[in-house]
Amino acid sequence: MLKVEQLHVGYGSLEVLHGISFEVPQGAIVAILGSNGAGKTTLMRALSGLIPIKAGNIELMSKPLRRLAAERRLREGLALVPEGRELFGSLTVRENLLMGAYTRHSRIEIEQDIERILTRFPRLKTRLQAHAASLSGGEGQMLAIGRALMSHPRLLLLDEPSHGLAPIIVETVFEVIEQLNREEGLTIVLVEQNAHQALDVAHTAYILQSGSIVLNGEATVLTANSAVQELYMGG
Description:
This protein is of the alpha/beta class. Helices cover 39% and strands 26% of the residues.
């Protein structure tokens, strides 16, 4: 589904990602783990076209993405749920969902998808006409995921979906991630600091440290790795 080769990304003269390579099989959940400053969010922004890359290649379903703008990448099926959610606070929940479908044209299908998302996130149904700025953190994360799903993505990028959420809401969000993968076959790349939760739902994972991938493998194997336990799972 996604192939990344020798990706170099930075800001000005500062290089943040130093030639990283990884692959995401179709239908898989792949976790990217690392501490603050490891380069996780920079990676997600580079994949989605929000910042340029200095060198390397990104392919989605064998199609090169490097020269495509963010909107074109969205049309090709790559959608990002950004860190911090970045909702349109002055718009209602419904309007935010409609913004997620701006690349689409069929009103009937758009309305059907809104109903599908409200079924998956019933709390949003009761808040449909509320402004996004008034939502709780958990409601906002549900809306951010729902907005991304409105574009009909082939690949969903989730940047720190547990950030700032209460533990019980984190459980709910990760249940939804599992359901989207299991029930809809959605391919997901999950960037997380919460290694416990990420490895619990992921099939494979990569450890990002100071802009380089230092370890990768099946999630169950990494969960049992003593170094991973010590550095990212509290011993």
